[in-house]
# Entry
Amino acid sequence: MTLRELAQLVALGEGLHLEFKRRVPAAERIAKEVIAFANTRGGRLLLGVADDGSVVGVRDAEEEEFALRRALDRHCQPHLDVATERIAVTKKRDVIVVTVPNSPDKPHFLTDGETPANAYVRVDHMSVEASPEAVRLMRLRRAPTDVLFEFGEKEQALMRYLDSYGRISVEQFASLADISPRRASHTLVLLTRANVLQFHADAKEDYFTLAYNEAV
# Structure
């Protein structure tokens, strides 16, 4: 990547697939950012770029890369490989472009080896904790897509609600159908796997829409 290409990338600003950091922060924090990208179709992390887009560079690129890889080795499960590229911005400073793949091994989890591990996903310019539905859909993505389900009264009520309001959360469906949140979650995930619904991660509350509306 050239300096000009780096400047064009920075000009896009932080978003779903791009994050700026002055340098590698605390190990668990940087691991969380990388995990969120890997669980959400990949992205790039620019080390040596401030939040406001100022390209400041890092003094010791080798040390920063070591800290990054050590953080991933210690706090990411399963293991995740990233690619790094150094762009010299002055004689003594570099920007490190960290390319995170859309991982075939998702979901990845942040762990410290003691407390329960959490998965993270990217929502706009933020890395947020993944909901149980997001984790389940990631785990099921490699399973056969031929899904069988009974389209009963509760499912019909769901379709009518979505036709009227456009979106629904697990809690809303549980209330609508008078069923437990666990059963509501299972039904919504099943219908998503069957390509009837589309899942949307959200910083406040994940939700589902009719899949055919996505093509309109």
About this structure: Residues 27 and 130 are 19 Å apart (CA to CA). The chain has seven helices and ten strands. The beta strands are 18-21, 43-47, 76-77, 83-88, 94-100, 109-110, 118-123, 126-129, 197-200, 207-210. Residues 61-75 form the longest helix (15 residues).
